[in-house]
Amino acid sequence: MPPSSRKVSESAIRRLSIYLRVLERLEPGEEGTVSSQILAERAGTTAAQVRKDLSLFGSFGKRGLGYSAASLKDRLREILGLSKHWRVALVGAGRMGAALFEYPHFRRRGFEFVSIIDSDPKKIGTSWDDLTIRAADTMEQALRECGAEIVILTVPARSAQEVTDAVVRAGVRGIMNFAPVQLKVPPGVRVNAVRLTVELEALTFALRADEDGDG
Amino acid sequence: MPPSSRKVSESAIRRLSIYLRVLERLEPGEEGTVSSQILAERAGTTAAQVRKDLSLFGSFGKRGLGYSAASLKDRLREILGLSKHWRVALVGAGRMGAALFEYPHFRRRGFEFVSIIDSDPKKIGTSWDDLTIRAADTMEQALRECGAEIVILTVPARSAQEVTDAVVRAGVRGIMNFAPVQLKVPPGVRVNAVRLTVELEALTFALRADEDGDG
DNA sequence: GAGTGTGAAGTAATTCACAGCG
DNA sequence: CGCTGTGAATTACTTCACACTC
């Protein structure tokens, strides 16, 4: 009897998303049932961890067999909130914004871009895939009009907080932040940061530590 | 007497990188000394956490005062391995690759792009900032020639493992992976993955959970 | 006084190990 | 038998709280 539920760690959720990715990349022929062992190998974790994670939301395996790939996929999509289509606005139409706008994996999962905002007069009024880029100073209205639920934020660090405040005023409750600052938001608004420099520096730390280990 | 040392968690390292970012964004006038309190607020953590993290590598604060911003910055750069310049190769010159190649924060931190590889015949031979894009089938040699230490990998999922194997053969020991697969690498090679879809889905999970909480 | 550095206490996450079911 | 589901044991991480120093 698993609740929908309280106390699921952030890292468990991230792993669920990874399991979903693994399931979607099963070879034809593997698509019947999968064991926690297989999921673990391809997701980069352990079988026990996979079982624990899944058991947080129910018991959808068959003992002695494994998990039905198709139904586990469905279940994970549901858990992650992917049953609904999400309306996403891109705020910041620079190179990073363009890359994310084109990123095929977002679209494939049911994320739909409904608005693009930028402050560059050269870009305002031009279109990407039928979507006209709108001016930053009309953002609040634009976001409301198109019913944006999530904002992908790729603006420069110096304007990130100010833009965020306006995004929040427009009623958006989820932000994926690429700007290298910690955003302040009121309760009820959720920010997930993608910290590219941090990720790269975690790498240089490890590489340097390895070198020191050798001699 | 703090060792250089064993048992520093991945999350502690990531926070160190964030503290460095905070220090680099101090306003003029704040640049003298900073308290763990200030660092914590801007990094999105607690003062105790900041002090614990820093104490893993030494005691570089002054009691009653705080940390010297300038020397803490230096110390963090050193710890993270940023005293040296890193030679980075971009493997995969699509939109995401382009965005990362232009990403100003990498360059600012002393990461230098020394090679670009792609498999698209239309791109091979063209240049980005004086760097000529080289063919995938000459990658191994190209990476050796330019002394690449880190690879930023933005190739499609289906070719990611194969490309990685070649990258490893070329002697590269650090990979920042943007492809949505778990890469297998031999011991001594380090992969840090940036999982954009996972990050976005952690957001949809949280947003959906919030809705359920209300009514 | 103000703010660091750090053991000790408290929480959280992971791994173990095995009962139980298909 | 094989593999899940899960309490119990372990390990890792964070927070507390206070002695210590400037």
Portion of residues within helices of chain A: 40-55%
Structural class of chain A: alpha/beta
User: H/E order of the elements of chain A?
Assistant: HEHHEEHEHHEEEHEHEEH
Largest interface: chains, residues each = A-B, 63 and 62 residues
Largest sheet of chain A: 7 strands, mixed
**Basic shape of chain A:** globular
Distance between the termini of chain A: 54 Å
Stretches of chain A where pLDDT falls below 50 for ≥5 residues? none
Number of helices of chain A: 9
Structure description:
Two copies of one chain form a homodimer. Chain A is 45% helix and 19% strand. Chain A is an alpha/beta fold and 215 residues long. In chain A, strand 2 and strand 3 form a beta hairpin. The N and C termini of chain A lie far apart (54 Å). The interface between A and B is large, with 63 and 62 residues. The structure holds a DNA duplex (22 and 22 nucleotides).
Characteristics:
homodimer, 215 residues, alpha/beta, three-stranded antiparallel β-sheet, 9 helices, 19% strand, DNA-binding
Question: What are the SSEs and their pairings?
Answer:
Two copies of one chain form a homodimer.
Chain A: H1 10-24, E1 33-34, H2 36-43, H3 47-55, E2 61-62, E3 66-68, H4 69-79, E4 86-91, H5 95-102, H6 104-108, E5 111-118, E6 127-128, E7 131-135, H7 139-146, E8 150-153, H8 157-169, E9 174-177, E10 190-193, H9 196-214
Parallel strand pairs in A: 4-5, 4-8, 5-7, 8-9, 9-10
Antiparallel strand pairs in A: 1-3, 2-3, 6-7
Helix pairs in contact in A: 1-2, 1-4, 2-3
Chain A binds a DNA duplex (22 and 22 nucleotides) through helix 3 and strand 2.
